[in-house]
From TrEMBL:
Signal peptide: none annotated. InterPro entries: Resolvase_HTH_dom. The lineage of its organism: Bacteria, Bacillati, Actinomycetota, Actinomycetes, Propionibacteriales. GO terms for molecular function: DNA binding; DNA strand exchange activity. Residues 31-41 have a biased composition (Low complexity). Residues 31-54 are annotated as: Disordered. This is Resolvase HTH domain-containing protein. Pfam families: HTH_7 (PF02796). Residues 58-88 form the Resolvase HTH domain.
Amino acid sequence: MVDRGGLESHEWKRVERLEAVWELAKRGLGASGSAADSGLGEVITEPKRRSRTPLTAKQIDAIHTARDDGESVMSIARRFEVSRMTVWEKTRTRQKPRPAEKTG
């Protein structure tokens, strides 16, 4: 039995998978399709980034309005297909309008 060095079962499986993919890449089998036959799937050499389309001024205004109306950050993020952090960043700088104070 191989010493796992204190790794948990799921961690050890990941190490074994990485070793197998490394061996396939060393032999040049990564992009040829032979890796798929081994059950390891395709080796990703260049990961793709999600395209980040900037929000329009109209969308940002709609986000502000939704937050002012009490809608949750999570709900807004889902509706506009952006992260919660994006919603937070767009709304944290704008303060809610304060109600007019009564004088006299």
